[in-house]
Amino acid sequence: METTSRVGAQAQPTPSTTSTTEGVPAARRTVDGYLRAPFPWYGLDEAFTGPRWLMQVGTAADGTVQHGATGHGEEPTTRPEVAGPERGRFAVVVTVAANPVRRSGDGTGVLDATTASSAAWLAGSGLLAYTWPAQLDHALRSEWLDQQTETAFELADDLDGPAWTTLSLPVDGVPRPFHYRESEFGWVLAGSTTAGVHLGAYGRGMSAYGLGFSVIADIAAYA
């Protein structure tokens, strides 16, 4: 289980995240963290012509940026009164630095290297943050989210298991293999690049089969 090490827990928005009036986490609105990253950020390639927006970055104990996400399409909402298709058609791309060794959260030890499983965990937990059943009350929603998040973690740790299929998608114009799964909440995929990062993605209302990924030339353009 240390392969993923719940690396994304600190960076994924949840239903309790402080939000703007539109239901979009306010913490997503800054580009500063992205600019500090020592690795390239990825997003959908130029074939996608819709809106693009920033989400959040995750950092190590020493403040080094380790991963982050960029959004594409209609920004999803966490407002409980908005349900079903009205929550938006979107795809989020998660970029994870391919670190051979990572410091533990308390700075006292090291964790296993990041892998495609790390990206799968971030993508799976990120999807859940925007797809919890709106009709649940707060107490039941928290229990549901904890249960589903644990399932997402276990699935991410077994990318060769029966829950995943494979597909090939272009990354910087070159086909790359990805692990892919669908659920009632949306889809999740994860893979690796030759640019020193792992990629994850999740979405709803947009087909994953037609996506392509490329390095973001100007991350500030997403702000």
Automatic annotation (TrEMBL):
Residues 9-21 have a biased composition (Low complexity). It comes from the Bacteria. Residues 1-26, 64-83 are annotated as: Disordered. Residues 72-83 have a biased composition (Basic and acidic residues). This is Uncharacterized protein. It comes from Streptomyces changanensis. The lineage of its organism: Bacteria, Bacillati, Actinomycetota, Actinomycetes, Kitasatosporales.
